[in-house]
Structures are given as structure tokens and as C-alpha cells.
Amino acid sequence: MVERQEQAASDAVMTRIGQSVMLHHAGDREEARGRLLDLWTEIGEDGDPLHRCTLAHYMADTQDDPADELAWDLRALSAAEELTADRPAGHEDASAARALYPSLHLNLAADYAKLGRREAARTHLRRARTAAAALDTDTYGAGIRTAIRRLETRLGENDPDDPRSGPPRQRS
């Protein structure tokens, strides 16, 4: 009985995160940010790592300041790492967090690029590329890989193992 109540509460949090994301995608960034921030306050910094990871991942997208976006993306990555360290590989929440790693690192790479921190951007771009190798060839995986290639082009990075990347750039 207690387990079902915990699952229902967990699902309610994810539902509320999803509703906020839908608001953001519909163009109501301020309302989405406000709801996510309220939910963050409810969850707390020591709340369920999957909730914190998911919420921070989406909260980053609602930020106006690139430094704030970076701070939220770092929170998301920290919660994902906490989640995967605490649970075995086959655990559902740990698997969900691992599936987010390519996107988390891609977002961090983009954040660092916006802030002019190209080496940090390249580091996270490489981590995103490595993590993306585990993704399926579905729409999500294809979208992440495409976004990685776009950022690689922006940063002048090429994946030597990807024939679509072209010849490696000469570095001076």
C-alpha cells in the first residue's frame, strides 16, 4: 500500500513537470518557469533524484540568462549522477537518467558555448557524443545525434569515427 502511494506521488510530480513543459512549449515561458520553481521548492534539494534531474533539465530551458541556464543544467547532471550511482544499472530510474545523459551533456556544451567557454563546451560535447552511442535509432536518438552534429559544426569539432563529419580540422 505504501509503495503504491509513493508511486502515485512520484507520477504526480512527473505529471506536473510535464504540464509545465507543455506550457513552455506553448510559449508561456514565465508561467512554466514559475510552476517549475514552485515544484522545485516542494521537492527540495534533497528530493528524489529523478524528479530533480528531470525538473532541473527542463527548468534550464526556461532561463533567460545563460549562466542561470548552466546552473540548472549542472543541477540536472548532478542529480542524474546521484541517481545512477545509487541504483543498479537495471533499475528503471537509473536507466531513465542514463538515457538523459546525451541530452544533459549536449545542453551543458551549448551553455558553455554561449558563455564563451569553448574548452568546457568541447568536453561536454565529447561526453554527449559518447553517451549518444547507447541511444536507440528512434526519433529521440536521431534528434540528439543531429543536435550534436550541429553543435560540433558550430564549435569546429569533428567526430573522427563519423564519416558524415568530414575530414578533421587542422588545429593551430
Structure description:
The chain is mainly α and 172 residues long. The chain has one domain (2-157): Tetratricopeptide repeat domain (Serine Threonine Protein Phosphatase 5, Tetratricopeptide repeat), CATH 1.25.40. It is built from 7 helices and no strands. It has helices at 2-25, 29-43, 49-61, 66-86, 92-114, 118-132, 139-155. α5 runs antiparallel to α6 (118-132) and α5 (92-114) packs parallel to α7. The longest helix has 24 residues, at 2-25. Mean pLDDT is 85; it is low at 1-5 and 162-172. This is Tetratricopeptide repeat protein.
The assigned CATH architecture is Alpha Horseshoe
Q: What is the CA-based Rg, rounded?
A: 17 Å
Number of helices: 7
Unreliable spans are 1-5, 162-172
Indicate the mean pLDDT: 85
Number of strands: 0
Helix and strand pattern: HHHHHHH
Q: What's the CATH superfamily, by name?
A: Tetratricopeptide repeat domain
Percent range for β-strand residues: under 5%
What is the CATH C-level name?
Mainly Alpha
Protein name: Tetratricopeptide repeat protein
Biased composition (Basic and acidic residues): 150-164
Region (Disordered): 150-172
Organism: Streptomyces anandii
